[in-house]
Amino acid sequence: MNFDDTPEEAAFRAEARAWIEANAPSHLLPILSGSGFGTSAEAGEIDMLAEAKAWQKKKCDAGWACLHWPQEYGGRGATPMQRVVWNQEEGVYAQLSFTFIIGQGMCGPTVMAWGSEEDKQRLLPPLAAGEDIWCQMFSEPAAGSDLAGLRTRAVKDGDEWIVNGSKIWTSGAHISQYGILLTRTDPSVAKHKGLTMFWVDMRSPGIEVRPILQAHGQSGFNEVFFTDLRIPDSQRLGEVGNGWNVSLTTLMNERLSIGSGMSTGFEPLLDYAIRAPGPSGGRLVDDPSIRSKLADWATKASGLKYTGMRALTALSKGEQPGPENSIGKLVAGTTMQDIAMFAIDQQGEAGVLTDPQRAAAAARFQQVLMRSPATRIEGGTDEILRNIIAERVLGLPGDVRVDKNVAFDKIPTRA
Amino acid sequence: MQFDFSEQQQEFRQEARRFLAAECPPERVRKAIEGGGFDRALWQGVAEMGFLGIAIPEEHGGLGLGYLELCAVAEEFGRALAPLPILSSIYLAAEAIKSFGTAEQQVAWLPRLAAGATIGCLAAAEGERLSERHLRTAFANGRLDGTKAPVLDGDIADIAIVLAKEGDALSLVRVDLAADGVTRTPLDTLDPSRGQAEIVFAGAPAERLGERGEGWAMFQTLLDRAAVLTAFEQIGGADRALEMGRDYALERMAFGRQIGSFQAIKHMLADMYVSATLARSNAYYGAWALSTGASELPQAAATARVSATNAFRHCAKNNIQVHGGMGFTWQMDCHFFYRRANQLALALGGPPDWEEKLVSRLSAVNMPIAA
Asked: Cβ contact (<8 Å) for A291 and B355?
């Protein structure tokens, strides 16, 4: 039971730290440190995007991008523990790379697992270097948690596929060069069996991206419409009808991002509570009426942190990250929402203000209050995550699925 | 980084689990709750396995291992809800003598505690929430006067470590409970598997442990260490309550389905898993601090304590809920866990005291802890 680096990890850490100290864009530190916890710099802000690309390119040129990828595709061939050490050292600068996470963390590994060698050589190095941004086109208006219920059709036409339909909640589609696209190629078989995956150039004719104005007033998500989009069959990832298994590669890679750790917001809350006045004068943190809440959130934050360390220990012994890692987002998502609501309450009438110059805690909590509902939904809702824990960790029965063995085109869609 | 028990420590835990599965099945807990009295045979068996002397030096009859081994075994005692005074005798009394006793006191008592021949307890509370300023029990000229209640395992203990006033400060003293001037009365409690007593001292002979006036600080140190060990008992209990709920949800049918296929039940069990997992991770942090003597121990102990208390209570109460009406019957074991969860929540001081310790510690040092 110790937190010490092995000698190899310590050497790697020293190397990473020295390089970051010499190369990181320290002029961005105030922006990166001051942004709302758990939220990224919005991709739509052009300057930050340029900064993000510059940092990514710099990292890639020096061998610090996509650490776990093979070197031939722009990575470093690093161990999972080295990746974690890097993440710890990169600290707030890692926020700059959030724009690339979907591409590098999910789409890239999917192409690596299922794409042709030619595709890999061509697509992966620019992705690692941050030259290309990728998006993941899975969810649809009628297929979110029930992903296999998607309706976007791909019909074979000679050496090409013709795609019609639409996707939604597609993060970063408006700034992406490429995307992976899950389609239905056979509606006459059960829903999981008739799917096929492709990669697509987002500049192709027949693709229209419309940003969605979200509840918190920003537009990171999009709708994507396909009208007679033509995709060469050579851009198919995996066999026809095997798209569900291909998509599982993508989804499993989401889980590999353990160790980067989601914020619960407790640290900013504690910082705020130490500085802010409480209901009976004095510091907020000294008010007995709130200590129980603070203690509860403190144990959630530290519990997640140390759960991450236990997972890393397992990883370093060669174990694969399992479904138990679903607790990270589940706990962080609900906790950050509760914390944000609590923190604005403490600001009294001024708690409604969203101007960072005027809000008591620089609008960190207001920003998170409005963003956190999405955190509890994206990448698996709280309810889906609880199902994963119940079914795959605790071994409870799966939900009743009346559509399981029914041909997709026979599944009722309206009551 | 190695944030887990070593293979050897895990093997030690397995040994404790096998022993307790065979020797301390739920029927034995039931017997204690239904008035069977202290199970001295089981206690002797535990002592013979060496479990009591894990963290006691070999020269004093222990195994001379570390706190991590003791943590690993504590989890199994919690899992089995062992109706035994290990918290009182080992986590508290033996620790007090080991850490603060003179060489003579160590020679006299540690071998007996390790062998289970002597049972120790810690007497601090005086009938209400404990505070440094309001203690009335007094020690002077080698004599002790006052009333302590409730004293966990005070009904069966042979010696007590007592927090008492000495002049205008507090000291820790050791009292032989068989001595003249000691009267004890067993008390009815929420969890009869662990006895509690009122102990009246009327000029009872006592000897000081450690320095005069250092009693409160020593007491806090003892509480911190015991809190980590008790957190392992709590996560053991939480895990077992979760398993019981899960097993019942798989077995019980309603509306033509296993009740564990209903999301209301699945999600309740998933939440139990979440709280037990967070508590386990926090307890590991506490174990690390305890075993390395880290300066973070007070914060780590309070973190482990608050988290484990919440988790055990959460799992124990929802285990009853998963069981439905059956869960509330005397014949099911669910209430054992509910009783123990609440008993352990109040041993070593109640949740508000530990929440207070945790937050004051965090806000004093403002250490970055957050994920």
From this structure: yes
